[in-house]
Amino acid sequence: MAASHGTAIAKAALSASLLRADPTPIPGDEIARLHSLLDKCLTICTPENIKTCKHWLLEHLVQSSHRVTAFGKYLVALSSSLKSQSADGMTPSSRRRRLYILYLLNDTIHHTTFYSSPPVPFGNGVEQFLKDLFGLAQDPTRKKQRARLENLLSIWSTKGYFSEAKISSWKDEIGKSFLESTEPQEAISVSKDVKSKEQQVLLPALHGDPTAPYHDLPATTMLPLMRPNSPTPINTRSVKPIAMKAGPPSKQLSEAVDVFIKSVDKMWYGGDMRMLSDVDELGVDIIKSSDTQDEDFLDDPMGARNKEEGYYGWSRGFAIQMTKRQKGELGKQKDSSREQHFSTPLHLAQIHSYYQDLNVTFHPFPSGTGHMIQSLRSHDIDVAIGLTEGWVAGIKGSMKADWYKVIGQYVDSPLCWAISAGASGDTTVEGLKDGGKVGVSRIGSGSYIMSFVLARQKGWIAPTGQKEPFDFVVLDNFKNLRDAVNDGTADVFMWEHFTSKKFYDSGEIKRIGEIYTPWPSWLITAHDSLLQVNDARLGAFLDGVNRGIAHFRENVEESTKWITSNLEYSDEDAREWRKGVKFVDDVRKVDLGMVENVVEILKEAGVVEKGETADGVVVNIES
Questions:
Q1: pLDDT tens digits for 325-374?
Q2: Which residues form the CID domain (predicted)?
Q3: By three-state DSSP, how is residue 285 classified?
Q4: Distance in angstroms (rounded) separating the CA atoms of residues 74 and 97
């Protein structure tokens, strides 16, 4: 990234402030890492890059007013020095990179306002620089740019980060800039994606390869053979390529193809990747759309959504539409679970109509139990199934959630967490006795809590838990954790065994041990409004789950095939998992002693305050 003379001075001033003992000096390699993280944010503004840079600021900068001031001055100088580099079609334009600076500040202000205890006045420290940053981010030729800036200020107004007078003055400045717009100089040097003349295109004679087998033909070749509500399967011999009318395509078709091609190009476009994939602690695919960074912003709990589209078959939108048509919209009992191998009995119950007249719709939550808790709060779902420690922490922890209760126990066996280290290292579990760097997805997560369970079982901490047993390194996601143990950022991390197994098989990481949760791994919860009126649908749902579990036990081949067909597990892994998992005989029976044990472990981890008990967590549903 090229830097002007003023930028170099501001960068040196920032480095000097970081080297001072305010409160502790920052090593030179960490300062270099800050600039590397910032460069990544401005080149590829993804949720992961923004959050990683934000965590660096939270750890090293936001507590010092002098460092915040130096950082603000550096951002203004950096924003001023940015020149358009979009001529190569790969680097984001200067206006986008200036916008990304504001997005980084937005996330950091949000975190220091709502999640730091006590709140850190980071917003007050950078307020004096925001007028210049908004001014530099303006582009009178871009209406979308103006909309993004005004949308950002509207969110700040709603959240109350700054005074209304200050926000109004920034909005006026943006509006004034667009009113006084002149011919932009930068636009002259930027190549435009405009065709000098329309290319002559013709439709092919056939849609599909006549030499290809039916299963490799486009899905649309089945459309002429489909009959509404017909139980008769399609004769595969009748699936043939579709003859096309000769001549140029319609305008609508040409535009649709252009949009598709641009979306593919954008997928690999350095400044704005379309989709970022990862897996969570239980092997669930997480698809995070980077488009949310413009509209929803990165700290939105809905930021991680499964928007994945397969290349073959029907689109998700079409499948959802067909499901709604078949099942209708009224009287639905909405259920949420983290979609992976543990959900097999739930789906078997649906396939075999064990829910009877109850219309159940499953909504996987790849973003985790915390997201399910918020969805229960907004009553987007009625029932949710997730990790035991997450539900108990939601009710008894800092959130003090009173909008749901535990109504059932789903699994009777503990969850196996594998302990992983770098592929070429010599780290052992016993080597962690005197402390070590343990990677976790976030503070309070399962990977964080299980480190306390490990230390407690090994006798490395006192029962009262006076201090943390390890140095925790927050790394957000599974990929970052794998990278961290290989580059030395962390010594070990803990993750669900079957999710980690394929990375052991490939040699990317090494398995050095395992630990089981000292409690059954899954509980069933329900929204409080259903419990208040003793909704009969809850009992019907629990009965259906019991029958699904019984079917799972009695039909080994069917349940194994469902796992391998729908969840991308090998037959060997699916059968191995079946051997270790034990579902309950009756989901209505919740072990209160188990809940009390979870509360005690969460106290040691600092997730639940001392003095809390298990009272008020469980509500019994009568048969």
A1: 565 543 345 554 444 678 899 999 999 999 988 888 888 776 567 778 88
A2: 26-178
A3: strand
A4: 15
In the predicted model, is pLDDT for residue 506 greater than 80?
Answer: yes
pTM of the model: 0.45
Euclidean distance between CA atoms 233 and 215, whole angstroms: 14
- CA atoms of 120 and 58, how far apart (whole Å): 10
Strands 471-474 and 332-337: unpaired
- Taking CA atoms, 592 is separated from 215, 228, 312, 397, 409, in Å, by 52, 50, 47, 18, 10
Sole residue written with tokens 């603000």:
72
**What six digits make up the tokens of 446?**
């399962």
> In a 3-state reduction of DSSP, which class is residue 386?
strand
By the 10 Å C-beta count (0-12 exposed, 13-18 middle, 19+ buried), 134 is classed as buried
Amino acid at site 380: D
Cβ 122 vs Cβ 67: under 8 Å: no
| Domains of the chain, CATH where assigned | 5-187 (1.25.40.90), 202-247 (no CATH), 329-414+521-604 (3.40.190.10), 416-516 (3.40.190.10)
H-helix or E-strand spanning residue 254: helix 251-267
Cβ–Cβ < 8 Å for 189, 87: yes
Helices 143-159 and 164-179, interaxial angle, to 10°? 170
SS3 180: coil
**Cβ pair 349, 545 in contact under 8 A:** yes
pLDDT tier at 317, thresholds 50, 70, 90:
low
SS3 category, 545: helix
